[in-house]
């Protein structure tokens, strides 16, 4: 179909086994959830730098990109993906954890600073732009005295785990809504609330 919209979702994480299910990996976990629900086969690119799967409808084609490099080098995977492609960054959404957003909150926004997130910093440096969307998934602030770097590499508490399932479901819904209606996706993300975790 002519004029089919091309969209890109990138899920950030650390792919090493020891980081499985950590707070820092929730961006990639969202896209793994989306690919599972929609039976999308993720394949490793010949470069070894990312996995890719495609979800296609009559209106749009959506590439799911999962970097296979460490979080701090996420830009290297994007660099490989966009090679020889003419990308409109306004059709790219990077999904990632955010400690400055309350646990369970979602925000979808275009063109903001990296907020100290090394994965985002790496992407910004590679593409020389911040004019892409970011779906931020709130993982909450670290407890007093806990190093933020250690906190994001920790796993969710038993009290949080049940809510994380719902959080991933709601983030996955945003992925589905975004290609059809960006404004609706932004609104849906901003309105998510949770019951306070004990």
What is the secondary structure topology, with strand pairs?
Elements (H helix, E strand, L loop, with lengths): L4 E7 L14 H12 L5 E2 L5 E7 L3 E8 L6 H9 L9 E7 L7 E5 L7 H10 L5 E6 L9 H5 L5 H20 L4 H9 L8
Parallel strand pairs: 1-4, 1-5, 5-7
Antiparallel strand pairs: 2-3, 3-4, 6-7
Helix pairs in contact: 1-5, 2-3, 5-6
Please identify which CATH superfamily we are dealing with: Peptidyl-tRNA hydrolase
Question: Helix/strand-derived class?
Answer: alpha/beta
Proportion of residues in helical segments: 25-40%
CATH topology: Rossmann fold
Order of helices and strands: EHEEEHEEHEHHH
Count the beta strands.
7
Radius of gyration over all CA atoms, rounded: 16 Å
Mean pLDDT: 94
- Low-pLDDT segments: none
| Major sheet | 7 strands, mixed
The CATH class designation is Alpha Beta
